[in-house]
């Protein structure tokens, strides 16, 4: 099943949510900055795919610092 593209208003609403989601709603992200960052990157990818690169770049600006010891080691 393919993803259905969203309009600009949808992505702007998501951007507004991301502005205060950490730490305000950090429980939704297992209190983990890395999980929150993955969510942001996913949403930014959707915004970019739907033709809103500026919104995507703004979303990426809300990523949180992840302490070195908590980063994924691939």
Task: Explain what this protein looks like in three dimensions.
The chain has helices at 8-24, 33-49, 53-60. The chain contains three helices and no strands. It has one domain (8-64). It is mostly helical and 74 residues long. Helix 2 (33-49) runs antiparallel to helix 3 (53-60). 57% of the residues lie in helices and 0% in strands. The protein is globular.
Give a brief outline of the structure.
With 74 residues, the protein is an all-alpha fold. The chain has 3 helices and no strands.
List its traits.
mainly alpha, 74 residues
Topology:
Elements: H1 8-24, H2 33-49, H3 53-60
Rg of Cα set: 13 Å
Query: What does the largest sheet look like?
Result: none
The count of β-strands is 0
User: Quick one: overall form?
Assistant: globular
Rounded to the nearest angstrom, the distance between the terminal CA atoms is: 29 Å
Q: Tell me the number of helical segments per DSSP (H or I, 4 or more residues long).
A: 3
In which range does the helix fraction lie? 55-70%
Strand content: under 5%
Q: Residue ranges: pLDDT <50 for 5 or more in a row? A: none
**Quick check: average pLDDT?**
92
Which structural class do the helices and strands define?
mainly alpha
């Amino acid at each position: 099943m393919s993803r259905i593209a969203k309009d600009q208003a949808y992505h702007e609403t998501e951007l507004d949510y991301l502005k205060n989601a950490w730490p305000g709603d950090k429980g939704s992200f297992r209190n983990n900055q890395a999980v929150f960052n993955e969510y942001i990157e996913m949403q930014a990818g959707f915004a970019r795919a739907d033709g809103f690169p500026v919104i995507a770049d703004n979303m990426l600006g809300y990523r949180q610092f992840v302490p070195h010891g908590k980063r994924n080691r691939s």
